[in-house]
Write a sequence for this structure.
């Protein structure tokens, strides 16, 4: 008996060793080569539909085409691919590839026609009528109809998660006028309505209903297909779910009946891998098992990745900025002169130098990538004389040493400590005392929910959901966001709220942007925050990838940088 | 006491242990900062949606009522929905637990073979350079966390030598075998897919070895120490005086009784590895239970946290019982004592 046991152990160990030493098996030779990527009917109809990819920009392959073009990208997990649930980076990118939307964001910060070939808007801005393409098929081959748009909207509204907060609040009703015409009626005119439609992912009503569980929290709609849609799709986008082992990867395959135009070298398969571990990402890149890295690597990790042969670093503009959120209700920073003193004391150039090349200091309260950003506002620079002069006017100047400023930085983002320590050192130059505190994100969220527990300053990255300055102004400075981590300033200023709401309700673009500009000037004058830098989104990528986003040719709206139909892959 | 009675007693004890554990973890999970519903839905979700989720999860009820709801579900193996994956927690555990178990069992095998092998070697050549080398290796293994080994292995065997894959359970080109047990190696064997079995094994070697390193070091020291103690005993001297070969003395008379402490510690190590493997699972993108548990904690996914801890508790208790049985087999005195007490 013992001998048999010993023999079994020996066989197991030996097989392990053999398996360990065996070279990696070659890819299956049966994989059919894709000579010419399938092109769906090119958009030829009215309103010059936007082409997501730039097909003419394809890099001529220098080597024989691979058997199967694969695009592999690492992401921070989890990835929620239900169009009424997901709204983070991985989810938004997945949704952009799996589902189509009525309009598509472009590099200019506006939107182009997509599922909707054209649209009409009433004079009062309250009724929007969209005319849909007639050649769109879902992944099961069924045609897309206006009723699917209505269903998708209603589902998003009833579930209330994901991007519902962005798409649904101002919409009173959605109606299918016929199979290819859908009408939205709004409660109030808003400039955010049209751009917000890039977050209304259209799902097939029939597919969702066929996979809905009768029991669930949504009454007659059961679970609204939520469980099924966590690992499957019901979209019409250029890619469809092939496998989704949660916690590991999302594997998507090309939908050859997609109505749009693929890049000539668009990937046949797209694999989003759920890891951001530096050593793993570096090894995958070195072994040519990864085409594009995530954006969460450290400065040092990007430097190491850059040294790998054939790997480049793309620094993409983003809708995100790094803020020092100054609590305007807490002494000594409730005095505008003290706030201006710290704004002049901080060394912005040194702060920016700590980031990746190409990073720029913020100009005003919103990222420079947003439509309606005011580039002419006053920009605070380190000026110790000005800082001391402002401090002298502050009512707390006499005993400023008794008012230490607590700077809370997010423990999960270790790099933030560098800026906090720089801030501490800079303020010491004008005699202000800074206490640097490392705070876990959960505690940061908890602390900033109440005025009494909010720190003097919280250092937080904030991203705008849409490329519109008004939305960021609302997210950051409107009273509706006090008590959340998005606004530690606690401004609670009714005049400012009214100004933001008025600007957002202005449909005329020029007029609206002028109103945004004035609000930005006002906030800068009051020095309500310390605006550090506009974040660039860094990715390592292989030079065999033709990536329009790396050339600044795509929208900066989250999720659209890695729109695989527009990416060419010629990697061996 | 018969083995049957012994087992019944241990199982009854274990139920109380698990009940206590469930209460502790239930309370701890709920006093962590942050509203789980708000965290799951994000800062911008409307309050009515947050309220709905709170109601679904009974978060507005007193803690005791919440516990009763939870316990009632747990007894039916229904742990509710995960806020992170939006699936039933039971389905998540069914998917993630086999992945961890498979990895931990291989790590256990590495620990047993490596640890006992090195320990025997060390005892056999006690106080020689071999013993000293094993000692140094053991100390290094004990003090180095498993994730450091994981990083080193990825760099050495993945990045430099390129011998092993560094992520996932199967290569991109390998078609997964039909799921029966959830353990890919076992499923591959059941399907007669030796290619998938070998591929899955290759993917497991580095993470399992990283998990096993600390345990190998510890088992080596314990085995060596135990064997060294027994080496000076009379029955060994008698065996040698009778002219029994050194191989038989070492293998039959010395090793078996010396393995008792090793087996006890090995069992605990294997069970503990299930829970502490999250960093290794993260580095190797392994979809295991520890990683799921850690993600749940970071997102304050209450149902998932409680279920994971409970599953780990059950695993720990089960392994302990198994260890007791193995120790009884290895040590005849324990069996005799049990028989006499009947």
């Amino acid at each position: 008996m013992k001998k048999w046991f010993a023999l079994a152990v020996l066989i197991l160990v030996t097989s392990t060793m053999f398996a360990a030493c065996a070279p990696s098996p070659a890819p299956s030779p049966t994989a059919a080569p894709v000579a010419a990527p399938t092109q769906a009917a090119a958009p030829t109809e009215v309103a010059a539909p936007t082409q997501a990819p730039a097909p003419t920009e394809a890099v001529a392959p220098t080597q024989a085409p691979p058997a199967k073009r694969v695009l592999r990208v690492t992401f921070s997990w989890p990835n929620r691919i239900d169009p009424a649930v997901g709204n983070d980076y991985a989810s938004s990118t997945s949704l952009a590839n799996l589902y189509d939307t009525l309009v598509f964001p472009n590099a200019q910060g506006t939107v182009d026609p997509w599922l909707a070939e054209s649209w009409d808007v009433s004079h009062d801005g309250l009724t929007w009528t969209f005319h849909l393409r007639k050649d769109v098929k879902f992944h099961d081959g069924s045609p897309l109809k206006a009723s699917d748009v209505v269903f998708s909207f209603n589902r998003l509204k009833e579930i209330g998660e994901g991007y519902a907060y962005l798409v649904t609040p101002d919409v009173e009703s959605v109606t299918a006028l016929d199979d290819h015409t859908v009408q939205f009626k709004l409660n109030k005119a808003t400039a955010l309505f049209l751009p917000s439609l890039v977050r209304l992912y259209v799902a097939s009503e029939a597919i969702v209903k066929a996979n809905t569980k009768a029991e669930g929290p949504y009454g007659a709609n059961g679970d609204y297909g939520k469980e099924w849609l966590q690992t499957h799709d019901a979209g019409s986008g250029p890619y469809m779910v092939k496998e989704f082992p949660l916690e590991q990867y999302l594997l998507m395959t090309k939908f050859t009946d997609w109505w749009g135009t693929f890049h000539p070298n668009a990937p046949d398969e797209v694999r989003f891998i759920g890891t951001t571990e530096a050593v793993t990402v570096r090894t995958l890149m070195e072994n040519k098992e990864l085409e594009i890295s995530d954006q969460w690597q450290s400065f040092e990790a990007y430097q190491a990745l850059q040294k790998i042969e054939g790997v480049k670093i793309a620094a993409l503009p983003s809708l995100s900025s790094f803020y020092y959120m100054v609590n305007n209700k807490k002494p000594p920073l409730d005095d505008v002169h003290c706030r201006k003193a710290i704004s002049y004391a901080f060394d912005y150039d040194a702060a920016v130098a700590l980031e990746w090349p190409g990073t720029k200091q913020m100009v005003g309260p919103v990222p420079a990538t947003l439509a309606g950003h005011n580039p002419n506002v006053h920009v605070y620079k380190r000026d110790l004389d000005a800082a001391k002069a402002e401090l002298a006017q502050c009512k707390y100047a006499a005993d400023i040493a008794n008012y230490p400023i607590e700077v809370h930085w997010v423990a999960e983002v270790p790099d933030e400590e560098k800026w906090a320590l720089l801030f501490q050192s800079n303020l010491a130059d004008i005699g202000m005392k800074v206490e640097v505190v490392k705070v876990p994100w959960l505690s940061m969220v908890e602390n900033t929910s109440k005025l009494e527990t909010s720190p003097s300053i919280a250092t937080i990255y904030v991203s705008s959901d849409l490329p519109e300055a008004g939305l960021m102004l609302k997210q950051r400075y409107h009273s509706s966001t006090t008590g959340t981590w998005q606004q530690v300033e606690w401004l609670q200023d009714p005049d400012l709220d009214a100004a933001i709401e008025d600007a957002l309700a202005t449909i005329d673009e020029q007029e609206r942007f002028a109103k945004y500009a004035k609000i930005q000037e006002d906030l800068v004058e009051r020095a309500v925050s310390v605006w550090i830098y506009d974040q660039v989104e860094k990715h390592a990528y292989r030079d065999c990838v033709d990536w329009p986003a790396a050339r600044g040719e795509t929208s900066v709206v989250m999720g659209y940088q890695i729109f695989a139909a527009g990416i060419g892959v010629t990697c061996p | 006491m018969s083995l049957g009675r012994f087992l019944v007693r241990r199982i009854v004890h274990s139920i109380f242990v698990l009940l206590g554990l469930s209460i502790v973890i239930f309370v701890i999970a709920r006093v962590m900062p942050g509203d789980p519903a708000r965290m799951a839905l994000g800062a911008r979700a409307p309050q009515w949606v947050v309220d709905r989720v709170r109601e679904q999860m009974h978060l507005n009820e007193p803690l005791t009522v919440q516990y009763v709801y939870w316990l009632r579900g747990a007894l039916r193996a229904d742990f509710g929905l995960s806020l992170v994956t939006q699936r039933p927690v039971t389905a998540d555990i069914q998917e993630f637990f086999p992945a961890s178990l498979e990895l931990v069992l291989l790590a256990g095998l590495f620990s047993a073979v490596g640890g006992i092998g090195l320990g025997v070697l060390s005892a056999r050549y006690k106080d020689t350079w071999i013993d000293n080398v094993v000692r140094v290796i053991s100390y290094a293994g004990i003090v180095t966390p498993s994730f450091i080994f994981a990083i080193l292995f990825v760099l050495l065997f993945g990045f430099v030598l390129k011998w092993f894959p560094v992520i996932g359970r199967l290569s991109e080109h390998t078609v997964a075998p039909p799921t029966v047990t959830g353990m890919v190696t076992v499923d591959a064997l059941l399907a007669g897919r030796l290619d998938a079995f070998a591929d899955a094994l290759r993917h497991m070697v580095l993470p399992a070895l990283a998990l096993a390193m600390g345990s190998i070091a510890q088992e080596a020291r314990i085995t060596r120490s135990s064997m060294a103690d027994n080496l000076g005993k009379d029955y060994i001297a008698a065996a040698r005086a009778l002219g029994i070969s050194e191989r038989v003395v070492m293998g039959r008379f010395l090793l078996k009784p010396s393995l008792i402490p090793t087996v006890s510690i090995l069992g605990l190590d294997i069970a503990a590895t299930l829970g502490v493997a999250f960093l290794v699972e993260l580095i190797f993108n392994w979809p295991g239970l520890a990683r799921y548990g850690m993600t749940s904690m970071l997102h304050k996914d209450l149902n998932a946290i409680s279920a994971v801890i409970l599953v780990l508790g059950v695993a720990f208790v089960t392994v302990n019982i198994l260890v007791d049985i193995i120790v009884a087999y290895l040590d005849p005195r324990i069996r005799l004592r049990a028989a006499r007490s009947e």
